[in-house]
Amino acid sequence: MKNSILYITTLFLLLCGTSQLQAQDINSKKNNYVVLSKNIQQLKPVLLTANELAKEDGKNYGAFYVIICGKTENDISNNSDFNALLEEAKAQKVNVFVCGISLSKFNINPESLPSNLEITPNGILYGFQLKKKGFITLTI
Questions:
Q1: How far apart are CA 114 and CA 79, in angstroms?
Q2: Which keywords appear in this protein's UniProt record, sorted alphabetically (predicted)?
Q3: What is the second-level CATH architecture of the domain 29-139?
Q4: What residue spans define the domains of the chain?
Q5: DSSP character string of 116-140
Q6: How far is 67 from 106, CA to CA, in rounded Å?
Q7: Residues 79/70, Cβ–Cβ less than 8 Å
């Protein structure tokens, strides 16, 4: 009888403790953002938005990611306007990613891209993974 009570109590504590850990993963104390875009021309307004959210959130502002997917990746190489925006993104600590699937589909050589762009193998999957981690998401 004593062993049954011990087992039930241990099981109860494990279940309660685990559910709180999962809730903490989802409810981050920081506001983290990810924007999935099919148009590189959207980077400028996204950076303006990131700047305003950083001011609005204050200490609660976390990470800000931009994931670019689709044919628009063709327009990145040797694009001085886009490179200037990437420098601005870096200064604002906004991480800009391109989708590896799109690079392959449109035969874009990753070496032709600016060095401060990060490549994620699958941009859509990465967006969902970030959403599961509690990121606030927007697709434009």
A1: 9
A2: Signal
A3: 3-Layer(aba) Sandwich (3.40)
A4: 29-139
A5: T-EEES-HHHHHHHHHHTT-EEEE-
A6: 16
A7: no
